[in-house]
C-alpha cells in the first residue's frame, strides 16, 4: 500500500476520529497513527497480517473506545494495551493468542470482548475484575474446564462454544448477571452440568447442543422448566 494512500487515511481519521484499514496485507501496526493518539475513538485493522502491537504507541490512545484486530497474526498482547481506560470494545478474533496480559483487569470501561478462534487454554481470571463487561466470546479456543473463579464474572452473555470443556464449576450459577451461556460442541457429559444452572441461576438461555448427551435427557432434569 502506497504512502500517499495511507496519508489520505490518516488525514481522514484526523477529522473523523475513525481509522479503518482492512484487507490491506499490513504486516505491522501503522506508525503514522502516532500523530493521532489524542484523536482516535475507533481503530479497525482487521484482515491484515499484523504480528505484534507496538508497546510504545498502543497505550497512548487515550480516547480510544473500539479496537478491532480480527484475522491477524498476533501471538501476544503488550501490557501497555491495558492503559486504554476508555476502551469499551476489543475484538481479537482469529489470531494466535495463548493468554491475555496480567494487567488486563485495568481495562475498566470494557463492555465487549471477542477472543474467538485463538489458542486460549483457560478462562482468563483477569476478566473477573472487569465490572462493566457485558459480552465475552471465547468460542473456538482450547479451554478444558471452567474454574470456581467464574462465579465472579459480571457478564450478561458468555460464549464458550467449540472448546474442549468437560468440567464446569458449580460457581457458574453465582454469576450475578449471566443470562446467556453458550456451551455448544464441547466435551460435556450430562452429569458434569451443574444442576444449579437450571434451578438457582439467572441464566435464561442455555445452549448445549453437540455435547456428549442427548438434549432430551437435559429436558428430563429437575429444574429444566424453571
Automatic annotation (TrEMBL):
<dbReference type="Pfam" id="PF13855">
    <property type="entry name" value="LRR_8"/>
</dbReference>
<dbReference type="InterPro" id="IPR001611">
    <property type="entry name" value="Leu-rich_rpt"/>
</dbReference>
<dbReference type="InterPro" id="IPR003591">
    <property type="entry name" value="Leu-rich_rpt_typical-subtyp"/>
</dbReference>
<keyword id="KW-0433">Leucine-rich repeat</keyword>
<dbReference type="InterPro" id="IPR025875">
    <property type="entry name" value="Leu-rich_rpt_4"/>
</dbReference>
<protein>
    <recommendedName>
        <fullName>Leucine-rich repeat-containing protein 57</fullName>
    </recommendedName>
</protein>
<dbReference type="Pfam" id="PF12799">
    <property type="entry name" value="LRR_4"/>
</dbReference>
<keyword id="KW-0677">Repeat</keyword>
<dbReference type="InterPro" id="IPR032675">
    <property type="entry name" value="LRR_dom_sf"/>
</dbReference>
<dbReference type="InterPro" id="IPR050216">
    <property type="entry name" value="LRR_domain-containing"/>
</dbReference>
<dbReference type="GO" id="GO:0005737">
    <property type="term" value="C:cytoplasm"/>
</dbReference>
Amino acid at each position: 500500500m502506497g504512502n500517499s494512500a495511507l496519508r489520505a487515511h490518516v488525514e481522514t481519521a484526523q477529522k473523523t476520529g475513525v481509522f479503518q484499514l482492512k484487507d490491506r496485507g499490513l504486516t505491522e501496526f501503522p506508525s503514522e497513527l502516532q500523530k493521532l493518539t489524542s484523536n482516535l475513538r475507533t481503530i479497525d485493522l482487521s484482515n491484515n497480517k499484523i504480528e505484534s502491537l507496538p508497546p510504545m504507541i498502543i497505550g497512548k490512545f487515550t480516547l480510544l473506545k473500539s479496537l478491532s484486530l480480527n484475522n491477524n497474526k498476533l501471538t501476544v498482547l503488550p501490557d501497555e494495551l491495558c492503559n486504554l481506560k476508555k476502551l469499551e470494545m476489543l475484538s481479537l478474533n482469529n489470531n494466535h493468542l495463548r493468554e491475555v496480559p496480567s494487567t488486563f483487569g485495568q481495562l475498566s470501561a470494557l463492555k465487549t470482548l471477542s477472543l474467538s478462534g485463538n489458542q486460549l487454554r483457560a478462562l482468563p481470571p483477569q476478566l473477573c475484575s472487569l465490572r462493566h463487561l457485558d459480552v465475552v466470546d471465547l468460542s473456538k479456543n482450547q479451554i478444558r474446564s471452567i474454574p470456581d473463579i467464574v462465579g465472579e464474572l459480571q457478564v450478561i452473555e458468555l460464549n464458550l462454544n467449540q472448546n474442549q470443556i468437560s468440567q464446569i464449576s458449580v460457581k457458574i450459577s453465582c454469576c450475578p448477571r449471566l443470562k446467556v451461556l453458550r456451551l455448544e460442541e464441547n466435551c460435556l457429559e450430562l452429569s458434569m452440568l451443574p444442576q444449579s444452572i437450571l434451578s438457582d441461576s439467572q441464566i435464561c438461555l442455555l445452549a448445549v447442543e453437540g455435547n456428549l448427551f442427548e438434549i432430551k435427557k437435559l429436558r428430563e432434569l429437575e429444574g429444566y422448566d424453571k
